Automatic annotation (TrEMBL):
<keyword id="KW-0328">Glycosyltransferase</keyword>
<comment type="similarity">
    <text>Belongs to the purine/pyrimidine phosphoribosyltransferase family. Xpt subfamily.</text>
</comment>
<feature type="binding site">
    <location>
        <position position="20"/>
    </location>
    <ligand>
        <name>xanthine</name>
    </ligand>
</feature>
<feature type="binding site">
    <location>
        <position position="27"/>
    </location>
    <ligand>
        <name>xanthine</name>
    </ligand>
</feature>
<keyword id="KW-0808">Transferase</keyword>
<dbReference type="InterPro" id="IPR050118">
    <property type="entry name" value="Pur/Pyrimidine_PRTase"/>
</dbReference>
<protein>
    <recommendedName>
        <fullName>Xanthine phosphoribosyltransferase</fullName>
        <ecNumber>2.4.2.22</ecNumber>
    </recommendedName>
</protein>
<feature type="binding site">
    <location>
        <begin position="128"/>
        <end position="132"/>
    </location>
    <ligand>
        <name>5-phospho-alpha-D-ribose 1-diphosphate</name>
    </ligand>
</feature>
<dbReference type="InterPro" id="IPR010079">
    <property type="entry name" value="Xanthine_PRibTrfase"/>
</dbReference>
<comment type="function">
    <text>Converts the preformed base xanthine, a product of nucleic acid breakdown, to xanthosine 5'-monophosphate (XMP), so it can be reused for RNA or DNA synthesis.</text>
</comment>
<dbReference type="InterPro" id="IPR029057">
    <property type="entry name" value="PRTase-like"/>
</dbReference>
<dbReference type="GO" id="GO:0006166">
    <property type="term" value="P:purine ribonucleoside salvage"/>
</dbReference>
<keyword id="KW-0660">Purine salvage</keyword>
<comment type="pathway">
    <text>Purine metabolism; XMP biosynthesis via salvage pathway; XMP from xanthine: step 1/1.</text>
</comment>
<dbReference type="Pfam" id="PF00156">
    <property type="entry name" value="Pribosyltran"/>
</dbReference>
<dbReference type="GO" id="GO:0005737">
    <property type="term" value="C:cytoplasm"/>
</dbReference>
<dbReference type="InterPro" id="IPR000836">
    <property type="entry name" value="PRTase_dom"/>
</dbReference>
Length: 190
């Protein structure tokens, strides 16, 4: 997606060989018109996939997921990282290990929001090692529903998330694929 790549080049800050900061449009401040285009791009890629629901993880996945949900006309669920006052029982819960943060966390979705007839599009802001996407996919499996595909805003293709997800047979669509962040520069794949 050319508009997204342009935004990454203009506003992204390469913090290290591994980490790209995009706080000005995705992870802290949000650019609504860019997000609308991101939603359209996901919808175009998954329009024929029979999607009935979208699942993402709070917090940065929510904006792109909502825009995709608006385009596809389906509800959006965000898996919660902390148990809320109103969300305590009847949860599907999965562990997510972050290699970046070196910590394990849990994500949960209410059982009443997913059913076996659902075809679920998983959306996330970043794909690094794929652990967050795999945890969402396991939640969908727990509900005996199906994964319709996985949509990623920014993929760090030099990490192994994409191959782990494709090994499991999932269709992965990334709107910007980064080959390298070496020497402070963002290098894209195609
Ligand atoms: P993985 O799920 O693909 O294995 O990724 P990983 O554990 O490495 O990522 C943990 C968190 O860090 C996720 O956000 C992920 O989106 C984010 N992240 C990973 N690599 C980058 C990067 O290069 N730049 C930025 N900006 N974020 C990155 P999170 O902790 O769930 O945060 P949030 O969704 O609440 O913002």
């Amino acid at each position: 997606m050319e508009l997204l790549k342009k935004k990454i080049v203009e506003e992204g800050v390469v913090l290290s060989d591994q980490v790209l900061k995009v706080d000005s449009f995705l992870n802290h401040q949000i650019d609504p018109s860019l997000m609308q285009e991101i939603g359209r791009a996901f919808a175009n890629r998954f329009r024929e996939s029979g999607v009935t629901k979208i699942v993402t993880i709070e917090s940065s996945g929510i904006a792109p997921a909502v825009m995709a949900g608006l385009e596809l006309g389906v509800p959006v669920i965000f898996a919660r990282k902390r148990k809320s006052l109103t969300l305590q029982d009847d949860l599907y819960t999965e562990k997510v290990y972050s290699f970046t943060k070196k910590e394990e966390s849990e994500v949960s979705v209410s059982r009443r929001l997913l059913s076996p007839i659902d075809r679920v599009l998983l959306i996330d802001d970043f794909l690094a090692n794929g652990e967050a996407a795999l945890a969402m996919a396991r939640i969908v499996e727990q509900a005996s529903a199906n994964v319709a595909g996985i949509g990623i805003v920014i993929e760090k293709a030099f990490q192994n998330g994409n191959s782990k997800l494709k090994e499991k047979g999932y269709q992965v669509e990334s709107l910007a694929r980064i080959a390298s962040l070496k020497s402070g520069f963002v290098e894209f794949i195609d």
